[in-house]
């Protein structure tokens, strides 16, 4: 029997484990650092509320990093705590992806059947390119909150086109417009990947999911991975497997490789970590910088989700959030989806309890600052706000993150000096080791990443299941 150890039961890990364990001759063990409930019925109610975002200081289900970056630390990962936004990137993003990795397997035409197989779209399920029989329920808000309706009306009055299906085909040209956000929600409950993929598979005798277990290091024999070291409370242990698929997310996947001796040689030596394989782990990453435009407004009527409408302006996305993040103030987020300046991830210590350092590179490029200024001006026009001068200091004072980090273990061919994995997610130079999460994205994508990470995991799992 083939054995695969999956590191992390986040969004990607749920998909990978469910797909591989569908073969009864394939034993799959998933090790998750956060809590794992024995059944979906035991998940705390607030985690099923798509309007509840448990990322505050009191939350016990997140990883925390400098710069207010948080990631989900529980079964389902960030997909269990985010806004349930489930939007596909435009075709141009996949054209760029496919070109960078020199493989047609990531072209829009190649991935479209995977997107369709993932979803049951309750609004467009029978339309071309969509699905009506997949595990992820997708729907759009039928009764938007007042703040969402006001935003949509303002977009229409400003001459922007309404896009009925934000997950429909968007060709190589620029297509601006606003529309209802596709959401992974069913009957008012968050439909995260644990619910849609992993829990339905838990009864399989060849699938084991263990929570509260942090994988601290990969075990290697020469250039082949043979297992992992882990910690559980005060306990320590090792587990061996035929192969390891790392699905720990853009931060923890990169950190795990570096702690295991796979990373930039100067960094490894500075941390006292024996060099197994010099590799550009953490040398490139990207995120979506977001400016929060706040304005006075009444207390919101309770909404089931945090975001119901969005305005797409090529490389900008405007988001009228339904909850108030500051008492008495509404917020319109202005996010730059394709920043020019990449970021960088490093470790300050070989100790797995010390958080990684992430320099996101925000606002370094004049082009990025100019695009965000343009987005803020559009927001001010829609809201009829007299903002005055929007200089660099103003941008920095209102800067935040969309929490969409990716690219720390970038995908590319073997002769690409920036690449850590090949187009199938296999780590260059290490046998038996694959990465299947947002850390492998080779280009910025112009939408939130939840649909993309499920797609990525599905494609890579399919390659490893045959």
UniProtKB/TrEMBL annotation:
Cofactors (names): FAD
Residue ranges constituting the Glucose-methanol-choline oxidoreductase N-terminal domain according to the UniProt record: 72-95
InterPro entries: FAD/NAD-bd_sf, GMC_oxidoreductase_bact, GMC_OxRdtase, GMC_OxRdtase_N, GMC_OxRtase_C
Matching Pfam families: GMC_oxred_C, GMC_oxred_N
Top-rank lineage group of the source organism: Bacteria
Molecular function per GO: flavin adenine dinucleotide binding; oxidoreductase activity, acting on CH-OH group of donors
Keywords: FAD, Flavoprotein
Binding site for FAD: 215, 449-450
Gene3D superfamilies listed in its UniProt record: 3.30.410.40, FAD/NAD(P)-binding domain (3.50.50.60)
Entry similarity comment: Belongs to the GMC oxidoreductase family.
Protein name: Putative dehydrogenase (TIGR03970 family)
Species for this entry: Nocardia neocaledoniensis
